[in-house]
Amino acid sequence: MSRSATRRREPDPRTGWRGRIVGIGESRLPVVAFLALVALGLAALVAGVLSLGPEWLPGVGAVVVASTYSWALAARTGGRPVVYGTLAVAIGVVVLVSDEDYLRTGAAVMTCVISSVLGVMATVPAVTFLQAARECVIAILIACIGALATVAFEPRISVVEFEYATFGLALLAAFAVVYRLGAGLHGLGRRGAAIVLVGMVVLAVTLLYAELLRRYGTPGLVESLLDVVRWSREHLGAFPRPIETVLGIPALAWGCHMRARRRQGWWVCAFGVAATSAVANSLANPAITLRESGLSVLYGLVVGLALGYLVIRVDLQVTGSGGRRSRRAEEAAAIRPEPARTSALL
């Protein structure tokens, strides 16, 4: 027997995990195939944005991205990637051939939800804030490609209903996966339960802020807030989406940081779909240009990371890790095992 055949995979020195690569055994071929398919799909989608090539090219790109994302999400969550990937391809072909509005809309919803959840599930624990910021960027990039695929299906939608539907489904799917990753509700503990409760309150306030202002805000206050939005759009080119900025990015950054220390971090990460879904459905509104949508996502990411940094600092202060030397010791001890990015979580 050859030496390469008998060599065992050593555990990761940071996580202690002998995770398998997505797909079959330790082969990197599935990872390369995933990246290649996403690149091909993205190229077709960009060509559609630039009005290059045949009219059917963006639709094919959307099917490639949607099916590849379905495969990756199934593999990441311990499902059957070949089954779900093949099913996504079949559904996509039916949608393109039939060209029915309701099928295109359903495919757009499916693509948006899968992109949102995959963006969160593709993250790994972050020992430092800079690593947490990197994970947020990766999640947003995945959702950005999903946004192009979503709009390429040309859904016939009401923008507000589409945004609420995709966010709600993404949140339910994320919590369903996190329920398994976090060892059920009993794995929350008092601290985790308090965090989830606060997250729900922030989510409710963020979603209802416009309605609350309309009903209970004074005319002067409402006009002042609208002036801020107008100024930002006129001088900065866009205004960050509140749900991404206030909840999604801070929750994802803090959750990845916490996952390196405690399993409850997954419950915080679940709220990260507030950011990834807001990005994935950002192009559904025809009244917003591609440039403004991109700037809005970028501003939300920057401001959200600033808020996330403050939340992480407060968390470290509360848990007794104040001071540079104490923080370095705390970071050195943050080695909670978790699979690599290309390994199955379950």
Task: Please outline what is shown here.
The protein contains 14 helices and no strands.
What distinguishing features does this structure have?
346 residues, mainly alpha, globular
Could you explain the architecture of this structure?
There is one protein chain. This protein is an all-alpha fold. The chain is 71% helix and 0% strand. The radius of gyration is 21 Å and the shape is globular. 41% of the residues are buried. The model is unreliable at 1-25 (pLDDT under 50).
The count of DSSP E runs of length 2 or more, i.e. the number of strands, is 0
Q: Quickly count the helices.
A: 14
- Roughly what fraction of the amino acids lie in strands? under 5%
Number of structural units classed as domains: 1
Order of helices and strands: HHHHHHHHHHHHHH
Give the averaged pLDDT, no decimals.
83
Model regions low in confidence, pLDDT < 50 over at least 5 residues: 1-25
Secondary structure layout:
Blueprint: H1 3-6, H2 29-49, H3 57-76, H4 81-98, H5 101-121, H6 129-152, H7 159-181, H8 189-216, H9 219-235, H10 242-259, H11 265-270, H12 273-280, H13 290-318, H14 324-333
Helix pairs in contact: 2-3, 2-6, 3-4, 3-5, 3-6, 5-6, 5-7, 5-12, 6-10, 6-12, 6-13, 7-12, 8-10, 10-12, 10-13
